[in-house]
Amino acid sequence: MGTALPTPDYATPMPDSGGLALGGLAVGGTLLIFLGVFLFFVLILAVVTIIFQGIGIMKMHEKLGLKGGWMAFVPLLNSYALGKVAEQYIKQDGKKSAKFSVILLVGNIINMGFAMCSGFLSGISGATGSLGLSNEILTVVSLINLALSLIYLAYTFIYTVVVYVALWRIFAIFNNQSATLFLVLSLFIGFVQPFLIFAIRNNEPCCVEIKKEVPIIEEAVKM
């Protein structure tokens, strides 16, 4: 007798490639939805924090008799407005703080410059084939990009320290007793910083010299 061949089991369903493809699309679509919702909430949080911090800084400008509080709502200039509040702090020896307004503004401009240079160099590295650049040029570009990244890393550390020094002085002006606590919260829970600034905006400032504008009529009488 010959060996009997196995009988095909027609009852066993074959994998449906179309169904698998649809399942993959469904999973991908779900992930995209979650990503979209996440990015939406991140955008909302960013807008809310900008508004709260802007209101807080603008009110602090009013309390300190400073002009230009509207800059707190303008990108890049908001760092100048924040620094302007911080530099009003008077130390125990009677000396005023450094020009945080200029330091933070210039620091932000340098940040933008680093980002643009890094993006430009990365673009050159990625387009080497289409541009027809040699391997030697690619190596030089990569080394420059690496050196720039290391410099930017060191710069970011220094700039971050300056920002937190400025924040501590703002907290000390409007809530001296809790300045260190607020700084720690801002350091470890970054998104609470704008809300802390907003919360203390109406407090009476201390450790500062309040600038009061003299009315033109009163100034003319004194003359």
Main structural class = mainly alpha
The number of helical elements comes to: 8
Instruction: Note the main sheet.
Output: none
Residues in helix, %: 55-70%
Portion in strands = under 5%
C-alpha Rg, in Å? Answer: 29 Å
The number of distinct β-strands equals 0
| Overall pLDDT metric | 82
How far is it from the N-terminal to the C-terminal residue, by CA? 131 Å
The global form is globular
Task: Characterise this structure.
With 223 residues, the chain is an all-alpha fold. It has helices at 17-64, 77-86, 100-126, 128-131, 135-174, 179-188, 193-199, 216-222. 69% of the residues lie in helices and 0% in strands. Helix 1 (17-64) packs across helix 2 and helix 5 packs antiparallel against helix 6. The longest helix has 48 residues, at 17-64. The N and C termini lie far apart (131 Å). The model is unreliable at 213-221 (pLDDT under 50).
List keywords for this structure.
8 helices; single chain; 223 residues; disordered C terminus; mainly alpha
Layout of SSEs?
Blueprint lengths: L16 H48 L12 H10 L13 H27 L1 H4 L3 H40 L4 H10 L4 H7 L16 H7 L1
Helix pairs in contact: 1-2, 1-7, 2-3, 2-5, 3-5, 5-6
